[in-house]
Amino acid sequence: MGGKVAMEFALSHPQRVISLVAADVAPVAYDPKHRHILDALEQLDLTKVENRKDADKLLQKAIDTHGVRQFLLKNLKHTDNGYEWRLNLPALDDNYAAISGAVCEGQFDGPILFIKGGDSDYLKPEHESAIRDRFTQVDVKIIEGTSHWLHAEKPRIFNRLV
């Protein structure tokens, strides 16, 4: 989602961007394959959560990858009344179709680094034309042994590339 926002901004305001990184996402429309994650976060009964370990355990059924759960749980904050999400889940829910949609047209001539998860199907060879139509200085790196959630699964390698 962040990579799409960055690409959209760079294409809409190229004079305001020097370079950017897109983590395992292309400027194309995607099927809503992470809908179950948003649903799991919305359905989590935060009144039953006394600590992050409780939340992790409750999310295990819907989200099987430990690193992904840990990444998502960074958005859980403790308040005087218990726990709540930092994320605006209703806004994400209302705008999920737009978030999954294609990035606008335009061209960005600065460098962009696409980082692909080695086991992910988010960056495909058929996306190359959509990428090259919009971006003229493309570099691609692959982090082997990661899914779409590469920054959560191998954060040290990801941070080194960025």
Automatic annotation (TrEMBL):
Hydrolase in keyword set: yes
Domain of life: Bacteria
GO terms, molecular function: hydrolase activity
Keyword Hydrolase assigned: yes
Keywords from the named record: Hydrolase
Organism, scientific name: Pseudidiomarina aestuarii
Entry-linked InterPro entries: AB_hydrolase_fold
Protein name: Alpha/beta hydrolase
